[in-house]
Structures are given as structure tokens and as C-alpha cells.
UniProtKB/TrEMBL annotation:
Transmembrane segments: none annotated. Residues 186-249 form the Sdz-33 F-box domain. It comes from the Eukaryota. Coiled coil: none annotated. This is Sdz-33 F-box domain-containing protein.
């Protein structure tokens, strides 16, 4: 039986579901996209099964996890990963009934069948409302979370949904990715025990926030940033601040000349390119790399050396 056939069989009775669960079949990864029409990706190897929860007749698509989809499109794909870019070599789509299950129940059900170590989800806040209890009841322990909010002026409902997602799912997450165009507080996310935090937004990032954050890797792609602010952060790092940070990458348009970045750091130049080494008060060394090949667009990387 194919993976989709095993899932279909599990719907036939509670006994069938228990039998499938008892097999402990391995699943490489589960990816969940919470958007107007939710999608659940089950990645086996080399097979992927995609569930598209259709919201026909529902204006605006999904607005809560309690809604019941009209039906479900199930696509089985064979993926070729032997080349540089993955490609689909075979794809077949079936239409299933909604099994009288809500969106949240579909997520819980599909995540309960197989033995999987990696769950991740992306949330689009547009028109969708996520309450705290339904999030906790629905999602497994997510390793990776991504949240998108494209409104320059997010509504109170958007902000509340953002806070609910982070409060409900952040305790188990290792990696968080945020795309925020509006002014939403992320201080509580930075203070979580994360391996990586990635933020994409056009506003000027506040590097002072990093001093209280507890992330190992921080990556940001922004419209513009200040070398002066980044220089102040590096100076505080040399005095012992933020000892958990191992990697920092900033992309964007710099507001000052790049030499401002190194002022007062006692940096040692490495090689011919813009690579420098600094050291903190306990002898830990870090490498700073600067690239500005395209006009004023600059990439700065900070890497703690082993």
C-alpha cells in the first residue's frame, strides 16, 4: 500500500487507525501552512503526500481552526533529490471527503499516524484568527515556526493572533522565522531559548534588543540599518554581553561608511578582503566579514570562532 492508501485505510474504523499507529511507520518531516486554504505536507522519502483543505463557499478562506473544509485534495508526488534542484517526477491528485473533521482535527489526525521527529508550521495572519487554546490542542511540538504579517498597520486581532501563536508554540521551537512589516513586539521571542531567529522586515532593526536575547543565531534582512548601532553592539559583546550568540548576519542598506563599524573594536585585519577578528573580555574570538559589492547594499556577518 502507498502512504496515502494507508492513511485512507485508517479512516475506515478506530481499529484500523490503531493498527496503523501501532506500526510506527517513519515520516521524515511534516510541514503545515496555515493560510486561506490550509496545506499539510507529509514528506516521506522519496514520496510526499500533500493535503489541500479546500474552503469552497467560505468567503475569505480559513478564519479559524474550528472550520470544516468542503473537501480535501490529496496529491501524491515522487521527488527527485539527486540533482541540485529537487523536481517532481510523478504527481497524482485525488479528492477525498472532509471526513466531517475540522481543520484542527485534520492536523491532529495526520500528525498522529506516523512516527515523525520534525514538525514545522507557517502561519499567515491575513484574515485568520488563532486562539490560544485551539493552538495548544491542535499542533504537535513544532521544531520550526514561521509567522507572516504583511500589513504595515496590523490590526488588534493580528497582534493578538501573533501573541497567541508565540505563547502556545514557542516553548518547543528551535527555529523561528518572522516576516513583519508592521510594529509588533518580538521581545518575548528573542528571549526564548532558540537556536535560530530570522527576521525579515523593512524597518531599522534595534540591535540593542539583541543584548537581552537568548538566541544562538540571528539573521535579518532589512531595508536599512546603522553601522553605528551595530558597532555599539559589538563593543558590548567584547565586554561580555550576549555570550550565547554564535552567529549574526545583517543584510540591507547601510546608513554610514563601513569604517564606522570597526571604530574602537581593536579589530585585526585577516587577509586582503574586509575580514576582521575581535576578542571579548574572556578571550573568545569572533570574525567580522563585510561585503558591499552592490552600491550601498551591505552584508555583515559575525561568527564566533571555536
Amino acid at each position: 500500500m502507498g502512504h496515502h492508501e494507508i492513511i485512507a485505510y485508517s479512516f475506515s474504523s478506530n481499529k484500523s487507525l490503531s493498527l496503523v499507529q501501532s506500526l510506527g511507520l517513519p515520516l521524515k518531516k511534516v510541514r503545515i501552512k496555515m493560510e486561506e486554504r490550509p496545506r499539510i505536507y507529509l514528506h516521506f522519502r522519496p514520496i510526499s503526500v500533500l493535503f489541500k483543505l479546500r474552503m469552497d463557499g467560505i468567503v475569505g478562506g480559513m478564519t479559524s481552526l474550528y472550520q470544516i473544509p468542503s473537501d480535501v485534495d490529496v496529491t501524491v508526488q515522487t521527488i527527485d533529490n539527486s540533482r541540485m534542484f529537487r523536481r517532481v517526477t510523478n504527481s497524482t491528485t485525488f479528492t477525498w471527503s472532509n471526513q466531517e473533521k475540522s481543520i484542527g482535527e485534520w492536523i491532529r489526525y495526520l500528525c498522529s499516524i506516523f512516527r515523525c521527529a520534525s514538525y514545522e508550521a507557517r502561519f499567515d495572519l491575513f484574515n485568520t484568527r488563532f486562539d490560544l487554546q485551539s493552538l495548544r490542542n491542535t499542533f504537535p511540538k513544532l521544531r520550526r515556526i514561521a509567522i507572516d504579517c504583511f500589513d504595515v498597520e496590523p490590526s488588534e486581532e493580528d497582534i493578538q493572533s501573533f501573541q497567541n501563536i508565540s505563547r502556545a508554540l514557542l516553548p518547543h521551537a528551535e527555529n523561528v522565522e518572522l516576516f513583519l512589516e508592521g510594529n509588533i513586539s518580538i521581545q518575548h521571542i528573542g528571549m526564548a531559548n532558540l537556536k535560530q531567529l530570522e527576521i525579515e522586515y523593512p524597518r531599522n532593526p534595534n540591535f540593542d534588543d539583541l543584548l537581552t536575547w537568548n538566541v544562538e543565531r540571528f539573521i535579518t534582512d532589512t531595508e536599512h540599518f546603522s553601522f553605528r548601532d551595530l558597532n555599539r553592539f559589538f563593543k558590548l559583546w567584547t565586554k561580555g554581553s550576549n555570550p550565547r550568540l554564535k552567529y549574526l548576519a545583517v543584510d540591507g542598506e547601510a546608513l554610514e561608511d563601513w569604517n564606522v563599524l570597526l571604530k574602537g573594536l581593536k579589530a585585526e585585519k585577516v587577509g586582503k578582503r574586509k575580514k576582521y577578528t575581535i576578542q571579548n573580555c574572556v578571550g573568545i574570538r569572533a570574525r567580522i566579514r563585510i561585503r558591499n559589492d552592490i552600491d550601498t547594499f551591505v552584508t555583515v556577518k559575525f561568527i564566533v570562532l571555536k
